[in-house]
């Protein structure tokens, strides 16, 4: 079995990209942290622990290449930093993400809601769905609890002021 880094080197050569040790180390961090949805800064900090010579620009350039080659999936909203997920199967993105618009937390949904929809699309439109990316934006449980607590605190403060 070939090592993943050897496969990466071969892929880079096939696509005309320069293969460097920095890109290999970024790849290793992404593999090791799999589904953690790391930011570019998080990736940079992890690589920098063992390779202090790496630059943030190298991380950004490498992430762009990895995204183009479908090695990673970029996630995020316009209000948040992008986060990156390792694409272990190097194929179309086939699961959903819940993305909190308050704190940026991302959770994977493992259920496949597209199965029935794909069958209906094939039957009705004669179109075969072979990939999709689905992001659901909202507010996570922790942020909802905080929002309720903040409202309660405001009511308590404004209510206490009325008693004086």
Topology:
Layout: H1 4-15, H2 21-32, E1 38-39, H3 40-50, H4 56-68, E2 72-75, E3 83-86, E4 96-100, E5 106-109, H5 114-125, E6 134-138, H6 141-163
Parallel strand pairs: 4-6
Antiparallel strand pairs: 1-3, 2-3, 4-5
Strand content: 5-15%
Give the name of the CATH architecture of the domain at 1-91.
Orthogonal Bundle
Rg, rounded, reads 21 Å
Give helix % range.
40-55%
Q: In order across it, which strands form the biggest sheet?
A: 1-3-2
Which stretches are low in confidence, meaning pLDDT under 50 for 5 or more residues running?
Answer: none
Largest sheet: 3 strands, antiparallel
CATH fold name of the domain at 1-91: Arc Repressor Mutant, subunit A
Question: Would you tell me the overall average pLDDT?
Answer: 82
CATH class category label of the domain at 1-91: Mainly Alpha
> Based on CA inertia axes, which overall geometry fits?
flat
CATH superfamily of the domain at 1-91: Winged helix-like DNA-binding domain superfamily/Winged helix DNA-binding domain
The total strand number stands at 6
Q: What is the string of helix and strand elements?
A: HHEHHEEEEHEH
Q: Please report the number of helical segments.
A: 6
The N- to C-terminal Cα distance equals 76 Å
């Amino acid at each position: 079995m070939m090592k993943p880094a050897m496969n990466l080197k071969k892929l880079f050569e096939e696509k005309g990209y320069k293969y460097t040790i920095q890109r290999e180390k970024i790849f290793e961090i992404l593999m090791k942290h799999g589904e953690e949805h790391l930011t570019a800064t998080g990736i940079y900090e992890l690589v920098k622990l063992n390779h202090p010579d790496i630059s943030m620009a190298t991380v950004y350039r490498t992430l762009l290449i990895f995204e183009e080659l479908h090695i990673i999936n970029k996630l995020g909203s316009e209000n948040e930093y992008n986060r990156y997920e390792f694409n272990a199967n190097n194929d179309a993105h086939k699961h959903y993400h819940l993305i909190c618009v308050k704190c940026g937390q991302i959770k994977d949904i493992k259920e496949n809601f597209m199965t029935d929809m794909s069958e209906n699309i094939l039957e009705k439109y004669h179109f075969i769905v072979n990939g999709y990316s689905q992001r659901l934006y909202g507010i996570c449980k922790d942020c909802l609890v905080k929002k309720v607590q903040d409202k309660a605190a405001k009511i308590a403060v404004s209510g206490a002021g009325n008693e004086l």
